[in-house]
Design goal:
300 residues, alpha/beta, nine-stranded mixed beta sheet, five-stranded mixed beta sheet, 25% helix
């Protein structure tokens, strides 16, 4: 029996990630952000930081690592004050994961996603029984481990064999290797198409696609071209007892309103509510925040 269309929030929300024991946004400005990842302080480019830094240049100059970008998007190289460890452990609530200096300016996870992790944790813990959760484009698995620690059976899908390996390491570090987590190295679209044909169902789906990517067999992913089809298939995979569908995107030309409109169409017979807006990192002095990505999320 179909339900009315979801109620879409009239105004956007801002999900703010503040620092925790192993992470802080120390300062920002002049197109950069200064962050703390456990024992290391890190400077990375952030074009949105149009303002002047609050702290003196001597604080920035003392950073352990600086990412110098090139003209190519996300490309560049790290410059270190002293050679750091290849990996080091960080924790968020019940989950431990390894930070590492990747070639793409980030440290193998995205700290602003902590606001989403908290929401997912709550959704899983209040669900009946052991909900099945599908995490597409799961990368190094922090969201998967948050859900597993909260009591979900998780299917983690990513096209990168290296990322799957890092995710497994994070599961070991978290003491969650014995939890019901399936690690699938496959193109997300191909996997979801097969799951739809099988009639598989999930109580929760996390969809965090890149703007552009390639599958393990050369499949090409383009956000604006492929997201509508993938969203249709994800809607088919939601069970009658579904608790959530979380959609997150980083592309410059996307918006929370656009993501909400897409979910509203794909979930038109499911009722419930759709919230949408922006994820933001909050500076440790509380004076500034940096918008990092956009989200839309459905719940019954």
């Amino acid at each position: 029996m179909s339900k009315p269309a979801p109620i879409v929030a009239e105004a956007p929300g801002v999900m703010r990630t503040t620092g925790w024991a192993d992470y802080a946004l120390i300062d920002s400005g002049n197109g950069r952000k200064l962050e703390r990842y456990g024992r290391y302080s890190v400077v990375r480019p952030e074009p949105q930081c149009l303002w002047t830094p609050s702290l003196g240049e001597e604080v920035w100059a003392a950073a352990d690592a600086v990412f110098d970008p090139t003209d190519e998007e996300d490309a560049g190289r790290w410059r270190f004050r002293e050679q750091p460890k290849d990996t080091w452990p960080l924790s968020w609530q019940d989950v431990t994961f390894k930070a590492r200096f990747t070639a793409f300016r980030h440290l193998a996870f995205f700290p602003e996603q902590a606001a989403n992790w908290a929401w997912l944790d709550q959704k899983v813990r209040t669900a009946e029984g052991q909900p099945k959760v599908l995490n597409l484009f799961g990368y190094t698995g922090v969201a998967s481990l948050v859900c597993a620690a909260a009591g979900a059976a998780v299917t983690h899908v990513d096209a990168s064999k290296k990322a799957i390996g890092w995710a497994r390491e994070n599961a070991e570090a978290s003491g969650l290797a014995d939890k019901p987590i399936r690690w699938i190295c496959e193109d997300a679209r191909r996997y979801v198409q097969r799951e739809a044909r099988r009639g598989s169902k999930y109580e929760g789906i996390i969809l965090d696609p890149p703007k552009y990517g390639r599958g393990p067999d050369g499949e090409v992913w383009k956000l604006f071209e492929n997201l509508p089809e993938l969203s249709t298939l994800c809607a088919e995979l939601l069970s009658d007892k579904a608790e959530f569908l979380l959609l997150n995107a980083y592309a410059e030309r996307i918006s929370g309103a656009a993501l909400a409109g897409l979910l509203s169409e794909k979930l038109k017979d499911r009722g419930g509510n759709i919230e949408w807006g922006e994820l933001a990192l909050v500076q440790q002095d509380g004076q500034r925040q940096i918008g990092m990505s956009f989200y839309a999320r459905w719940a019954p």
